[in-house]
Fold this protein.
Amino acid sequence: MSDSPKTENAPDMRVRLSLVVTFAGLFILTIGAKPSLFGWDRSPVVGFVQIVVFLIGLAWICVGGYIGLASLWRESERAIVYDIGSRLVATGFVCAVFAGLADIAGMGSHSFPNMPYFGPWQATGVIVSQGIIALGFLMMIPFKRK
């Protein structure tokens, strides 16, 4: 028997919350990456505002995924692979932000006073960073349960 219904439903509520946050993040990421799907595209290039919006969406996806996968472990002890995976998610997001905002940081192909431009090198950096985030999420999955 369980002590109370609150503790039994808490992981389920966290999973639901994580799904809502993750799908909201996906929606925000889609707005930033492809605003033409909603009829909001105002320029032929991907500018600073779009980059920031899709990075905010990616942040929401990372937070939602972290909440959901952390709640799947319930009360069991988390493995070292989980810890490494959570750090990979955070590292991948930091790399995605740096790659996306490389022009602002002065490391991109266009300097800051000019219009920031999301070029192919930045896109590659963000995609590789998203792969690191996905690998981190895979490492956080509780495959074995006692």
Notes: The chain has a mean pLDDT of 86. DSSP finds five helices and no strands in the chain.
